[in-house]
Amino acid sequence: MSHRRIPKRKAILAGAGAVGVAAAAILLPNANASQTEDDAASDPAPRVMSAASVAGLIEKLAPQLGEAYGGAYYDAEKQQVIVNVVGNDNEVNVEVKKAGAVARSVQNSTDRLTSATRTLTSRATIPGTAWAVDPRTNQVLVTADRTVTGDRWNRLESAVESLGADTARIQKSTGEFKPFLEGGDAIFGGGARCSLGFNVTTQDGRPGFLTAGHCGVAADQWSDAQDGAPIGTVQAATFPGDGDFALVTYDDPAVEAPSAVDVGGGQTVEITQAADAAVGQQVSRMGSTTGLNDGEVTGLNATVNYPEGTVTGLVQTDVCAEPGDSGGALFTQDGSALGLTSGGSGDCTAGGETFFQPVTTALAAVGAEIGAGAGGNGDAGEAGDAGAANAGAGDAGTANAGAGGEDAGNAGAGDAGAANAGAEDAGDADDAGAGIEGVGIPGVGEVGAGRNG
Predict the structure, then answer these.
(1) In angstroms, rounded to a whole number, what is the distance separating the alpha carbons of residues 223 and 429?
(2) Which of 326, 336, 342, 345 is labelled catalytic?
(3) pLDDT in tens, 74-105
(4) What is the pTM of this model?
(5) Is 431 a catalytic residue?
(6) Active site residue 214
(7) How many whole angstroms separate alpha carbon 305 and alpha carbon 311?
């Protein structure tokens, strides 16, 4: 889908003794059973939680559990948070239950599993391999693609076996790990094709967007059409290393960059926040090659050894992706931005493993925000005039136009066009809400499609 950039002002969680002994033998089990039932009745029931609450709960609970903590994941079917606990310390289990989660006894602590990943890093950093902690099996899951054979396979297998079967396991992938970048259409730079992830606002208030770091190092400038004029310039890019992300700022500081993902069929998902992913969480991915696809988070803090180099700190999923989807948005249907497509194996016919750069990490690194004033510095006070010019087009835009930071970039999915920023456009109602059709995802799109006429 093409991206039509709109200038700001146009967009809108023996004897008696024997009898006594016999009585005691009969009564004691009953007494114990009653006590157990009472204790069980006093235990708080697990709370129904959303996947989005997992990160916050674990952030507070993990430090309290200390060495007993063995990771956590989300049970989507029961809508519960499952917390892995090492040992039989009742106080630890009580803390977990107080938090509204379910305590699950496991063998490996998070520290032990993290140590196992360090061993893999030192002994098995081989192109075509990846590993991540899987809290559901309480192991490190190691994956090798089809290129890992011969001596490289023997080396990997030896490293995994040294950790013990209870700590790590290995699986083969039929695909090949690679970044999903390809020559073609969508957003273009230096002959490469990628997808835009999420629109953001930089520290200085300029509109920009996040994409994959391997896209950002491939070219300095990006266009929304093959051989077209550049629309954005790369300001920061990380790949390989501690992530796979890039920040691109729009060359036109007045461009509207709505915080929304176009999911096709004229529907959009407004992106209201950046959030951390949780294992077991249901997610969606949008990319310029394969469009909208759904799946589940299967691992966190993954390490992937691409041919181009090792990337750490990624989210692992079973959502399919293909070349050209690089940089595309990983998000939830309730509007949380989670990740940027990095790479993986397989395709959307055979399936495979995919990896994503966490959005929260990328934002912190580049100093940007999701959905905060994505239209740049607005002129407070003009919103009233803008609304007057577009009566009936919706109020979201009038409330936020020119807010200068907080909401200008979220001016109503479907009504963003209602807010022109200038009295000189008071008569230009026909142009209001002309729509923004996405930047290569297709993914930022058709916000403000309401036309007044």
Answers:
(1) 29
(2) 326
(3) 999 999 999 999 998 999 999 999 999 999 99
(4) 0.73
(5) no
(6) yes
(7) 6
